[in-house]
Amino acid sequence: MASRISLTRFLVEQQRVDGHIPSQLRLLLEVVARACKSISQAVNKGALGGVLGSADSENVQGEVQKKLDIIANEVLIEANEWGGHLAAMASEEMDSIYLVPNRYPQGEYLLLFDPLDGSSNIDVNVSIGTIFSVLKKPEGSPGVTEQDFLQAGAQQVAAGYCVYGPQTTLVLTVGDGVSMFTLDREQGSFVLTQENVRIPADTKEFAINMSNMRHWDEPVKRYIDECLQGKEGPRGKDFNMRWIASMVADVHRILTRGGVFMYPWDKREPNKPGKLRLMYEANPMSWLVEQAGGAATNGRQRILDIQPSQLHERVSVILGSKNEVDRITSYHTAL
Ligand code: P6P
């Protein structure tokens, strides 16, 4: 069997192709991948590593932090702060941005991440993952402030996630399609296992937390109701449902076989636009989905066009197979 291409070789070749990715960005992505390997090791230990359960603390979102949330956050900070490729970082687990300490060289990139998405699944051994997004630090600003992070998702220069499931798989885009790398634990390196990932435009599978049905807005109720009517209904086909409650795992399934993922606004907290965070969940996942031929909106607007006003702001998310997302969006904009 031909030897597989390592992530390192893939990135070097991406860099070599008309400098598609500058060396500093390549270095950053390799450091993030190494950090994900360390997080994967910690996750895989589970009870044997004493890393399950809660940390008896809350994050900026007011959510109880799991021990692994904090471990993953620390791994990403420590791996990335000294390399000279970053100016600052932002994390779901930290209230404010993290400036690279003055003892280290400052770089031109900003790294944002949800260090361990799907934490409610940690203690029940269900797939979880790390989501990351890379922006360029705006030119001219001497220091770095939170304002420098508030860029629309369309400004990302790299985005990806690492899913810790039966395999540990890193999924990445630098704006030239989506590639998947599986961790070869014998070699200790990520190897290319799929490139030019494409999401089918149509699907028979939707992902949503059905327990919230009574709280949804009418367009979402209409769409799901039509799916549930199956062959006899207006869609003329039966649908399947999946909900893993780990966005990384649900999005990985959609990138692998199509589908539509929805976490829409609902009446439970009407002042919040949605549950998921724009900067380090929705934006990176939306870019990956679009790079694979899918679509991603908040019901009315392309997610990557949303101009953020706060670092931890939330957003309604509808993403996946393009024809389904377009249909759901049309139900919202028709009102
Ligand atoms: P619910 C995990 O906490 C998360 O942020 C996403 O990964 C996931 O899709 C969603 O929340 C699950 O939310 O309300 O179904 O538990």
Folded structure, characterized:
- By secondary structure, this protein is of the alpha+beta class.
- Helix content is 30%, strand content 24%.
- The chain has two domains: 7-194, Fructose-1,6-Bisphosphatase, Chain A, domain 1; 205-333, D-Maltodextrin-Binding Protein, domain 2.
- It has helices at 7-16, 23-45, 67-80, 146-149, 218-229, 247-257, 278-291, 322-333, and strands spanning 54-58, 64-66, 86-91, 98-99, 109-117, 128-136, 158-164, 168-173, 178-184, 189-194, 205-207, 240-241, 260-263, 276-277, 295-297, 314-315, 317-320.
- The strands form four sheets. An eight-stranded mixed sheet has the order 4-3-5-6-7-8-9-10, with helices on both faces. It has a five-stranded mixed sheet with strand order 12-11-13-17-15, sandwiched between helices.
- Helix 2 (23-45) runs antiparallel to helix 3 (67-80) and helix 5 packs across helix 8 (322-333).
- The N and C termini lie far apart (55 Å).
Strand order across the biggest sheet? 4-3-5-6-7-8-9-10
Task: Describe the main β-sheet briefly.
Answer: 8 strands, mixed
CATH architecture of the largest domain: 2-Layer Sandwich
Secondary-structure element pattern, one letter each? HHEEHEEEEHEEEEEHEHEEHEEEH
- Any ligands, ions or cofactors bound here, and which? 6-O-phosphono-alpha-D-fructofuranose
CATH class annotation of the largest domain:
Alpha Beta
According to CATH, what is the topology of the largest domain?
Answer: Fructose-1,6-Bisphosphatase, Chain A, domain 1
